[in-house]
Design a protein that fits this description.
Elements (H helix, E strand, L loop, with lengths): L3 H5 L17 H16 L11 H13 L8 H16 L6 H5 L4 H15 L32 H8 L9 H26 L5 H19 L7 H29 L4 H11 L6 H23 L16
Helix pairs in contact: 2-3, 2-4, 3-6, 4-8, 6-9, 8-10, 9-10, 10-12
């Protein structure tokens, strides 16, 4: 369960037995995600609630859906993001099955699943207002043979109910962008703090996820729905530098050697060069690498001790 564009690029293939809740009504998914997330976030919760890998897989099937909710439900998504972040960086908060998997292939699969799910957050979502008279809430249909009359009082109360104030579209999109930035920071810190414990396969999954997310936002999509054009443009502009800096840093930290991975990066990068920030970030990264090489060649006093990928502030 991950961003579809990653599969379209041929980087990863969807697991046919995952994404179980995909066709469930939104109201059902919201309830499940909220209840599972809030329970697992409680600091005093019983860590043995998820005591086997089967339990973990079930819970993560629910949690993963939280990253694909509509923009209006970002509060739920924020909680799910926080939970995964805790599991990554605070082993004491991990469920018992996660802790018992330390140093095994199961632990690597859990890391990979978290990275998969994080990618769903970067899907561009339409924020067009709903058509008049159409409700986005799930209402269970009445049984066709039901003879229970509809109460006039209920109808009257619903008519005079105070409408829920709607958050402006621009505010929702900006909240989405800020949450994406937080997740990019989480992915960067995962590479820095946990990278030494990642297997080669886990590093490869992380790189493919970040590469796929970056490509989905930075390349041109001439066939994209008109309803998504403005949202895509806003996200790509605001996230461009962040995406590239995270991608380049993780790529270098991974020590990736597979030629086909570098070929994929080259092919994707060619689709981003119409954006000025891409060229600027590439120049900054090249300069940072050169400065590090200068230090290695000529010693202290020349170049830099670390590779600085940040663009210089003007």
């Amino acid at each position: 369960m991950f961003l579809d564009w990653i599969a379209e690029l041929g980087l990863l293939q969807h697991d046919p037995v995952s994404n179980v809740l995909a066709r469930f009504p939104l109201s059902v998914k919201k309830t499940l995600i909220t209840e599972v997330t809030s329970t697992l976030l409680l600091t005093a919760s019983d860590l043995s609630l998820l005591s086997t890998m089967a339990h973990m897989q079930w819970a993560m099937e629910v949690l993963g859906q939280g990253f694909g909710l509509p923009l209006e439900e970002l509060t739920i998504t924020q909680d799910t993001t926080q939970l995964y972040s805790q599991w990554l960086f605070d082993p004491q908060t991990r469920p018992s099955a996660f802790r018992q998997a330390a140093g095994t292939a199961d632990e690597q699969r859990l890391y990979q699943t978290i990275f998969h799910h994080y990618s769903l957050l970067f899907e561009v979502r339409s924020t067009l207002p709903p058509s008049p008279g159409i409700s986005h809430l799930y209402n269970p249909p009445h049984h066709r043979h039901s003879t229970t009359p509809v109460s006039n009082s209920s109808s009257s109360s619903s008519t005079h109910a105070t409408p829920t104030p709607q958050v402006p579209v621009g505010v929702l999109v900006q909240r989405h962008i800020e949450l994406c930035k937080k997740v990019l920071t989480v992915l960067t810190m995962a590479g820095r703090q946990l990278g030494t414990s990642f297997s080669e396969d886990t590093w490869e999954v992380l790189l493919k996820v970040v590469l796929g997310v970056t490509d989905s936002l930075l390349r041109e999509h001439p066939t994209r729905s008109p309803a998504l054009v403005s949202e895509h443009s806003k996200m790509s502009e605001d996230l461009c530098e962040h995406l590239l800096r995270v991608l380049f840093e993780l790529w270098l930290r991974s020590n990736i050697r597979q030629v086909y991975m570098w070929d994929i990066l080259k092919k994707c990068f060619n689709g981003w060069t119409h954006r000025t920030p891409v060229l600027q970030q590439w120049a900054a990264s090249s300069h940072g690498l050169c400065q590090r090489v200068v230090r290695l060649l000529y010693g202290p006093g020349q170049g830099t001790e670390l590779v600085n990928l940040a663009r210089p502030v003007k």
